[in-house]
Amino acid sequence: MAQTVQLNLRIPSDLAREIAAISEQEALRKTDVARKYLIEGVRRWKLEQAVARYQQRQISLERAAADTGLSLYEMMDELRRRNIALDQTTPIEAREEIQALLAEIAASQQ
Q1: Is 101 helix (H, G, I), strand (E, B) or coil?
Q2: DSSP one-letter string for the chain
Q3: Is the pTM of this model over 0.85?
Q4: Rounded to an integer, what distance in angstroms lies between the CA atom of residue 35 and that of residue 28?
Q5: Could you give the number of structural domains in the chain?
Q6: Which pLDDT score, from 0 to 100, does residue 24 have?
Q7: CB 44 within 8 A of CB 13
C-alpha cells in the first residue's frame, strides 16, 4: 500500500458544498471525492506540461508519455486529438540518430 501523508487545506464554502453534493450523488466520502479530483487535476497538469514541452521540442514523444504516465499510444492519441504533429524530433535525438547512422556506415565500409 502506498504511503500517505495528511494535507490540511482551506477551501471556499462554495467548493465545499459542491464536494458534498458530489459525495452524496456518487455515494462516496467527501475526502474520497476531494482525493479523486485532486489526483485528476495533477494528472491533467502533468499532461498539459508534457504537451507544451513536446510542442516546444524540449522533450520527445516517448518522454512526454513517460512524464504523464501514459503509454506511447495513449500519448499519440492525445496529441492527435489536439491536432499536434507526431513527427517532432528534438535536436538531441536528431544528433543521436545521425551519429548512429554514421557509425553504421563506417562499420559497413570496413
Answers
A1: helix
A2: ------------HHHHHHHHHHHHHHT--HHHHHHHHHHHHHHHHHHHHHHHHHHTTSS-HHHHHHHHT--HHHHHHHHHHTT--S----HHHHHHHHHHHHHHHHHHT-
A3: no
A4: 11
A5: 1
A6: 97
A7: no
Q: Is residue 2 part of a domain?
A: no
* Dihedral-angle region of residue 59 (phi above 0 means left; psi in -120 to 50 means alpha; beta otherwise): beta
By residue range, what is the domain housing residue 66? 13-108
Residue 31 is assigned to a structural domain of this protein:
yes
pLDDT in tens, the chain (110 residues): 679 899 899 999 999 999 999 999 999 999 999 999 999 999 999 999 999 999 998 898 999 999 999 999 999 999 999 999 887 666 777 788 889 889 999 999 88
Structural domain includes residue 63: yes
Is 67 part of any domain? yes
